[in-house]
Design a protein that fits this description.
701 residues; 5 domains; 18 helices; single chain
Length: 701
């Protein structure tokens, strides 16, 4: 059955099987779930099915018009050679943080987002499986790991949709990543290397069938304790063959086949003396072990033959170049070996020392001083390529503030809230909250700032995105990549709100919030963009959920505004690269949108001196007593005015509202009252564990 004929909504098991076979997948009937027993196995003998696809007659016997398994829902794929090199990366993203961390690492290693754009499914148990085709020179291994990542390679087996899981759920292809929507991607070389490293570190290697290459992980250039190469051997082989062929050309432009053969044999012995297999097997020669790894005589002869064929072309060109004074294997320039610098104080010389394999590069003070300064998107607040959180209680105005910030960046404004904007460009705003009046918010913002945003690179993604699902993150990366292709890479991506993109997650669990942070990092690193999450606070005024936010964020802005108040406060509780702890007042202004409907919307506006006519002297005693009366009333109602680090600062704002003094004097009044036992901090709501100011004394003349 071809792709155009296949309709998944009405497909029978035979239709699914025929469609898979059209993709050169070795599809076989599978056992049904069996409580307490092993059921994720083919329902037929499969030892003989691991190297080539079954004949048509066999497939017809299984899934033909009167086939033996036409009513069997469960089916699976035999990975490896039988399926044209298909292998499966099985990742328990839903229940294993180590697996999620490994897959996030893989995403970060990808030179291109398209490298990992492949067919993917969600298993009946909630795991993720990604299908790739192995390159012809790499045999995918089959192994399990201790971190929740399994590889189904040569001779492996994976259950496929529409099979039923023991949980009662069906295996399903991820939306947009079905085999009828995208092609099974060819695995890039770097991914094969990472899988080999995964096997070496966390999983067992498979038994090596006779005649097959046994792959071992290939780190950078390294020698063993006896000075013999154990890594970088193929590169070394290539270099010494080419160097010897070029030398022969220099010495004798015309050379006999016998002389060439003798030189080849002599050089191969040199290669054997200088390299060592990574396979430890007593009684087997080094030459045989190298051959088993694909780094032995066969590869050597092939490379020699290729070089000889270029005798009159590239070899002749290189022979004209003066012979270098030193001949030694060096690391590939495109894959530099980790190095460190050593300064000799007596001579003033700087030496470059390669670091041993597995060591972390380090910097001395001189090198630290040469590190680049942080570059800001918004001066002293938002660093480029950073991650931050804007937090506040529902209705505090945080969305108005972040939307205004995003529009200022996208429309090329010089400042935002009195701070210089250093970089402008596309902005991606992810939200499905407040969409009904978003257009009025934008129109009101345009009216207030006299800016037209119609042609600005401000892009809204209003679909519901689950940051806990790898498939959703991949779709998000594809969407942003499309925007970057049509315009330029975005400078900022906003997620409003965090809770909306974490359906079903426990915000108090570090592992759940770590997955969210990892997803934000994937976006940030893929596009060198700043990612800003808009997050609610709890009733206690703290950022809702795990403290992982406070640790991971480069900056945190807390937005505070009492319901119905015109003015609010934005507090920088954390800025990684600049001073924090400062406060900015803002005003929520009602602005006409300027269209014929007469609609109005709020706009968050920076208030440099809130409000005009602020007093700088202590108010009269009667005014101060009014402050204390309102303060005690709020405490009695369980709504005490607070001033904790991440909580509301309405105490200052309310003192300002009643007295008309500036921010600095309002704080001085509160501090003086605390010192003189006029007020103290106490619990006003034991159930909600809310603390704030309580009046315990009176004002002296």
């Amino acid at each position: 059955m071809s792709q155009t004929e296949f309709d998944p909504e009405f497909a029978s098991p035979s239709d699914y099987a025929s469609f898979y076979r059209s993709l050169h997948i070795q599809v076989v009937p599978s056992l049904s779930p069996n409580k307490g027993g092993q059921w994720k196995l083919p329902a037929v003998s499969w030892k003989s099915l691991q190297n080539e696809i079954v004949p048509d007659l066999t497939f017809e016997r299984w899934y033909g018009a009167s086939g033996e398994h036409t009513r069997r829902q469960n089916m699976g794929l035999i990975t490896g050679k039988a399926s044209n090199g298909i292998f499966v990366v099985d990742v328990d993203l839903h229940r294993n943080p180590e697996a999620a961390a490994w897959w996030q690492y893989i995403i970060e290693q990808a030179p291109s987002l398209s490298d990992l754009e492949t067919v993917a499914q969600t298993t009946g148990g909630g795991g993720k499986q990604y299908l790739f085709r192995a390159p012809s020179d790499w045999l995918p291994p089959t192994f399990k790991t201790s971190i929740g990542v399994d590889i189904r390679g040569q001779g492996g087996f994976a259950v496929l949709p529409p099979s039923l899981h023991e949980s009662g759920n069906r295996y399903q292809w991820d939306d947009g990543f079905e085999p009828w929507s995208v092609e099974i991607a060819d695995a890039p070389h770097w991914l094969c290397v990472e899988i080999d490293r995964l096997a070496e570190k966390h999983g067992g290697r498979p038994m090596t069938p006779a005649g097959q290459i046994q792959h071992t992980a290939t780190p950078d250039y390294e020698t063993n304790a006896f000075g013999k190469l154990i890594d970088g051997r193929e590169d070394y082989m290539t270099r010494i063959i080419w160097a010897r062929i070029v030398d022969l050309k220099r010495e004798a432009p015309m050379i006999s086949p016998n002389e060439l053969k003798a030189a080849e044999n002599d050089l191969f012995q040199t290669y054997l003396r200088n390299v060592k297999s990574r396979i430890a097997e007593f009684g087997t020669s080094n030459a045989d072990l190298l051959e088993r790894e694909g780094r032995g005589e066969t590869l050597f002869r092939v490379k020699w033959s290729i070089a000889v064929k270029q005798w009159d072309e590239k070899v002749a060109e290189h022979a004209k170049v003066e012979k270098p004074t030193k001949e030694q294997p060096q690391s590939r320039p495109e894959e530099p070996v980790a190095v460190n610098y050593r300064f000799d104080a007596e001579t003033g010389e700087i030496f470059v020392d390669p670091l041993p394999e597995g060591a972390f590069p380090y910097l001395d003070v001189r090198q630290i001083k040469t590190m680049p300064d942080p570059e800001y998107l918004i001066d002293g607040l938002v660093a480029e390529k950073s991650f931050g959180i804007t937090g506040g209680a529902p209705g505090a105005g945080k969305s108005f503030i972040t939307q205004g910030q995003a529009l200022a960046i996208a429309t090329g404004q010089e400042e935002w809230f009195g701070r210089k904007i250093h970089k402008h460009g596309p902005v991606v705003y992810i939200t499905n909250e407040g969409l009904a009046d978003l257009k009025f918010r934008i129109m009101a913002w345009e009216q207030h700032f006299a800016v037209k945003a119609d042609d600005a690179p401000f892009f809204l993604i209003q679909q519901s995105i689950n940051f806990m699902q790898q498939s959703d993150i991949m779709k998000l990366l594809q969407t942003v990549a499309h925007i970057a292709k049509l315009h330029t890479s975005p400078v900022a991506v906003y997620v409003d709100t965090v809770s909306r993109v974490l359906p079903g997650a426990d915000e108090n669990l570090q592992k759940d919030m770590t997955i969210f942070i990892a997803a934000c990092d994937a976006v940030r690193q893929a596009f060198n963009a700043t990612v800003i999450g808009v997050h609610h606070t709890s009733r206690q005024g703290n950022l809702r959920g795990s403290t992982v936010f406070e640790g991971a964020a480069d900056f945190i802005l807390m937005i505070e505004r009492e319901a119905g108040d015109t003015y609010g406060t934005m507090t920088a509780t954390k800025i990684k690269y600049a001073p924090d702890g400062w406060h900015n007042e803002f005003e929520m202004k009602v602005v006409n949108t300027g269209n014929i409907t007469g609609k109005e919307s709020l706009v968050a506006v920076y208030s440099e001196s809130k409000p005009k006519g602020e007093k700088t002297q202590w108010p009269d005693k009667s005014v101060l007593e009014k402050v204390l009366r309102e303060m005690q009333k709020a405490f009695d109602e369980g709504k005490a005015w607070a001033m904790s680090r991440n909580a509301h600062h309405q105490a200052v704002m309310n003192v300002q509202r009643i007295t008309g003094v500036n921010t600095q004097l309002a704080r001085q009044i509160l501090e003086a009252w605390q010192t003189n036992a006029v007020i103290e901090i106490d619990c006003c709501d034991k159930k909600a564990k809310k603390y704030g100011f309580k009046v315990i004394g009176s004002i002296r003349d």
